[in-house]
Design goal:
By secondary structure, this protein is mainly alpha-helical. The protein is built from 19 helices and 14 strands. The protein has a three-stranded parallel sheet. A three-stranded antiparallel sheet has the order 4-5-8. Strands 6-7 form a two-stranded antiparallel ribbon. The longest helix has 16 residues, at about 15-30.
Length: about 500
């Protein structure tokens, strides 16, 4: 059987980067083995649905470049529909089958009934030790159950767990896992509104859609024994997928799961795209809007819980596919490292051609500084590419696109003495005489000018850099002069000479 994996988020808010990492690992595994990667939307909890969240999930996956080959927003396959609410009526038959085989039961307990049981039993859970005190089809007569059903009394269907049994399963990352049913409870499988819970729906869908591997977050590990029992009770044990529970994505200090609050506090995004809360209108930052490259984000996320077993760190998406395996996923949680995330992005920017980078920063430059000629923008980004960490950093290099609006006071103080002895007219004439065609020739000419006028070359360079950049750091002076052109260089030199 060919590999089939799924990413199955709930549209209860924006997709967290931990979710993107889960989707990435599913994508890499499927591509590595020539299988299918499916997007399934698990929206069984209708009360928690957030407007716009489903569209956000789809857009986020498209932006990072790990598009499923079937699923919601990506095309129907033979197992459509892929949104659980669209399959609502299909789940009841399986819940009823479990009741018929004595693996589940109707529970008619009201909220007040459950509150009374919680008050009676500290740390109450509905299980083999307490179910006999509930109002359910185990304690009620068959006639009363039939009457309640005929009266359309509200009920849920709960799984009937054995009183004490050890549930075993093999996890592809964690090895053998064993849990006693004494640590579990009789989870609701079908809610009173007829909607299945996650547990029933995800097991049924994985079976129907022929999912071969369930690769999901560690937070679902406690639910896995219940799912194993459901496969057995529904007669699907031989078709049960292999499980792989991924390590948690942790805060930078390793103390707990990474959250939006951590990102807000420490100054980094935890969502792939910017998100506006539909109720509060609060805007949360996104990697895309923060100036990250999607492949850099994928590379960074891949290393949060996995390593290739080599020293290589920069991978193309195709290289990640070829190198990926479940064997190299860690069991321990992975600490998010913002500095490493920035490093990945800077490296990816450096590896872009000037033409590619110009296309990516063009909207930013146009909005901030106005329309630039294409050939000029290509040359300009080439001068500062090594200094960019984010695409948005191009905004910090205003001197490439506009005259100096404000000079750095430290830089001005460093050239005050130089200005006083500088041969202004001779230097202006020198600039006008230069061809501005070759950076190397221009650099030699500047050195010759300094020598001829008994000036230190370092002083001349400080003055030029302050004139052209507004501060004492920047690209190679001769390269910048050729980019700006003779007229603009002369204009900036004259302006700087007037500064006090």
């Amino acid at each position: 059987m060919s590999v089939r994996v799924r990413f199955a988020p709930s549209p209860t808010g924006p997709l967290h980067i931990g979710g993107v990492r889960t989707a990435l690992y599913n994508y890499l595994y499927a591509k590595k083995l020539g299988g299918d990667f499916i997007l399934r939307i698990e929206d069984t909890d209708q009360n928690r649905l957030v407007p716009g969240a489903e569209a956000y999930i789809i857009e986020a996956l498209k932006w990072v470049g790990i598009e499923p080959n079937e699923g919601v927003g990506f095309g129907d396959g033979k197992y459509a529909p892929y949104r659980q609410s669209d399959r609502k009526d299909s789940y009841r038959q399986y819940a009823e089958q479990l009741i018929q085989n004595d693996y589940a039961y109707y529970a008619f307990d009201t909220e007040s009934d459950l509150e009374a049981l919680k008050a009676k039993y500290p740390n109450f859970k509905y299980d083999a030790s307490t179910r006999l005190e509930g109002k359910n089809s185990i304690t009620l007569s068959a006639a009363e159950v039939a009457q309640r059903l005929a009266n359309n009394d509200p009920y849920v269907i709960r799984i009937k767990l054995p009183e004490e049994e050890h549930v075993h399963f093999q996890d592809e990352i964690r090895g053998n896992v064993m849990v006693s049913t004494t640590q579990m409870d009789d989870k609701v499988l079908l809610k009173s509104d007829g909607m299945p819970t996650y547990h029933l729906a995800n097991v049924c869908d994985d079976y129907i859609m022929k999912i071969t591997h369930v690769i999901r977050g560690e937070e679902w590990l406690p639910s896995a024994p219940l799912h194993v029992l459901l496969y057995r009770y529904l007669g699907w044990e031989n078709a049960m997928p292999k499980f792989a529970h991924l390590p948690l994505l942790l805060k930078p200090d390793g103390n707990g799961k990474l959250s939006k609050r951590d990102g807000d506090r420490l100054g980094f995004p935890v969502f792939p795209l910017e998100w506006t809360d539909p109720v509060t209108k609060e805007i949360s930052s996104g990697y895309k809007q923060g100036g990250y490259l999607p492949n850099a984000v994928l590379n960074m996320l891949a290393f949060l819980g996995w390593n290739p077993g080599t020293a290589q760190e920069i991978f193309t998406k195709e290289e990640l596919v070829n190198a990926f395996s479940l064997d190299h996923i860690h069991k321990a949680g992975a600490k998010f490292d913002f500095e490493k995330a920035k490093w990945f992005n800077a490296e990816y920017i450096k590896n872009l051609s000037n033409e590619q980078l110009a296309v990516l920063v063009k909207p930013i430059v146009t909005q901030k500084f106005g329309v630039q000629e294409e050939h000029y923008l290509i040359k300009a980004v080439g001068l500062v590419k090594e200094r960019l960490v984010f695409l948005n950093d191009i905004e910090h290099f205003a001197y490439l696109f506009t005259s100096i609006a404000q000079y750095d006071t430290t830089a001005l103080s460093k050239i005050t003495a130089i200005q006083q002895q500088f041969p202004k007219q001779a230097f202006e004439t020198f600039i006008q005489e230069q061809a501005f065609t070759d950076a190397s020739s221009l650099e030699h000419a500047i050195k010759d000018f300094a020598t001829a006028n008994a000036l230190k070359i370092g002083d001349v360079m400080k003055f030029l850099r302050t004139s052209l950049v507004g501060e004492l750091s920047g690209p190679v002076i001769s390269d910048l002069m050729i980019l700006l052109g003779k007229d603009e260089v002369l204009k900036r030199v004259q302006n700087c000479l007037q500064q006090q």
